[in-house]
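sry for the spam today, last one i promise. struct tokens for design, 399 residues
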């Protein structure tokens, strides 16, 4: 039976590319296997109930990851623990705790702080639409103060449990200066959603963030076939999160843990390749008269947001190679209209105040050839401005 290895390794000593392939798998040769074992057990036989009682007492007292054989799938799983070890190393964090989805991960963070009486959250818009909704709706008993980065210090209260930012943010790709924000937070933990940047482009712990959240569904998995979430943080907060996960049940399925670990091996290569294509597409869009604004982060990345002069819905309806779908971070290119889908749940005024305009499109660039993608975008943009196109065609005929 595979046992769960201890998770603690503050900073990678090897390069990110090497860690991506080897972290969480160091024992495989000794085990005599090459691929990671996938443990689908929900429960584990034990003839020693007194020993189990002592181990469960220790978990209840500390939240420390169980050592030795697992007990029950909601407590821990060796395959998932390998993914957690690897992600913690990539983020340069002490520990990581995986969840069933990005939203389950965020919920656990909010509940862990609220359970200590720290229900107030300071947050900067825009955030992913459902994160915004979770905070604004107070669904978990939290209360939010929205502010801009410069207003964070003034928005803090004695019961503030978290400051939350996304950078680059979904969907506008707005960036914040993480060091400055971390400084403004004082002793309040800064939670950074690092889904868009991934540890390949940005490691928020190095800038002072205490909690780094991912929708693992996106770049970490990388192939659009696994839902997951993960929080990289110090071991003290990880213990609280493990408690919360055990109590509320938002565990990652072990097959998802297996797929996410496999996804991590190619993360640096995928992110760099897709980013190069995205930068080229952003440059071409910026020079296109059918596009009124292009948003592309200074740190780079595989996401491009742009506003069209014509009808954004027509672009969505006209793409053929690019997939018109919400989500991001897959090997294929996806495009969506945030005001209709990813940020629909955010009230119109709040959307607009966060910079999410009605003509904004968000594109997650994949690994296709840049010329093929541009040909598809070019045709779709032509469809977005039929009046202008007809006018141009008529002018061409008459001249
Ligand atoms: N954070 C960001 C930036 C996201 O884009 C998403 C989903 O799109 C989430 C969190 C939520 O993740 P999940 O869909 O895995 O619950």
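last one done:
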């Amino acid at each position: 039976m595979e046992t769960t290895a201890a998770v603690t390794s503050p900073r990678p000593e090897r390069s990110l590319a090497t860690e991506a392939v080897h972290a969480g798998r160091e024992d495989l040769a000794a085990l005599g296997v090459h691929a990671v074992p996938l443990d689908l057990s929900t429960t584990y036989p034990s003839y020693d109930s007194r020993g189990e009682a002592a181990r469960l007492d220790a978990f209840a007292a500390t939240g420390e990851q169980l050592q030795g054989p697992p007990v029950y799938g909601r407590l821990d799983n060796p395959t998932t623990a390998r993914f957690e070890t690897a992600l913690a190393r990539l983020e340069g964090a002490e520990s990581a705790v995986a969840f069933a989805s990005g939203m389950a991960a965020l919920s656990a963070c909010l509940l862990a702080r609220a359970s200590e009486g720290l229900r107030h959250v300071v947050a900067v818009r825009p955030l992913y639409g459902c994160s915004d909704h979770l905070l604004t709706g107070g669904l978990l008993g939290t209360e939010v103060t929205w502010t801009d980065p410069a207003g964070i210090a003034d928005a803090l209260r004695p019961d503030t449990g978290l400051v939350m930012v996304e950078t680059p943010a979904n969907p506008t790709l707005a960036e914040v200066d993480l060091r400055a924000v971390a400084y403004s937070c004082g002793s309040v933990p800064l939670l950074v959603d690092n889904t868009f940047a991934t540890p390949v482009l940005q490691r928020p712990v190095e800038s002072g963030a205490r909690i780094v959240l991912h929708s693992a569904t996106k770049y970490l998995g990388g192939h659009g076939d696994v839902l997951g979430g993960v929080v990289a943080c110090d071991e003290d907060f990880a213990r609280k999160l493990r408690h919360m996960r055990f109590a509320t049940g938002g565990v990652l399925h072990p097959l998802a843990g297996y797929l996410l670990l496999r996804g991590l091996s190619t993360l640096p290569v995928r992110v760099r390749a897709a980013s190069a294509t995205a930068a080229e597409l952003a440059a071409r869009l910026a020079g296109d008269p059918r596009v009124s604004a292009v948003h592309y982060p200074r740190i780079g990345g595989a996401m491009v947001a742009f506003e069209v002069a014509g009808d954004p819905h027509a672009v969505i309806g006209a793409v053929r190679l690019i997939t018109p779908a919400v989500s991001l971070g897959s090997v294929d290119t996806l495009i969506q209209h945030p005001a209709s889908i990813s940020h629909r749940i955010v009230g119109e005024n709040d959307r607009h105040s966060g910079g999410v305009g009605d003509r904004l499109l968000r594109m997650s660039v994949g690994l296709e050839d840049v010329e093929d993608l541009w040909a598809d975008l070019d045709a779709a943009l032509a469809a977005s401005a039929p009046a202008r196109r007809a006018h141009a065609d008529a002018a061409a005929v008459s001249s």
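The chain has two domains: 16-265, 268-398. ok im logging off now
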